[in-house]
Amino acid sequence: SLSSGTAYTLDMPAGAIRDAAGNAFAGLANYDFVAADVGAPSLESASVSRSGTAVILRFTEALEPATVGPGNFVVSVGGQVAATTGGIVSGNTAVLLLHQAAAVGGVVSVTYSDPVGDQVAGIVQERAGNDAAGFTLTGSRAASPPPVVTSQSGQVTGGLGTGANRFTTGY
How far, in Å, CA of 93 to CA of 85, rounded? Predict the structure, then answer.
């Protein structure tokens, strides 16, 4: 298979293939192309900052900053929807800034639902236009070693720490 975003050159000699009527293909020389990026970004890891005032989400690909904002996510702390004051996107990382810090031991959940259809805003999308799948992660903010995800739905392809599907917190 071809790797997304990789440049290739194709050479095919005349007569290498024929159509159903037996006509020979004229051939190609130095046909340059770049393989299309058709892979969607997926959530790789999530963490809560040491101060408890930010949720950090890392994806498998660089995100399109213009399409990602704090309104794309529902963050709950202690079972209550938490207000976000903004967000920052840099490369493959999205940071959601919380109005109030999550307490040590507080349960933090993050949900993203990919809207149906072709949108240009309100979505988590990488630069080629592929949407991330929806997900829900739940964990707790701890003052010592990070906790393991207590529940997760959606696709998480990697992890932070010793294994996949980890929701880690700063301490």
Answer: 17
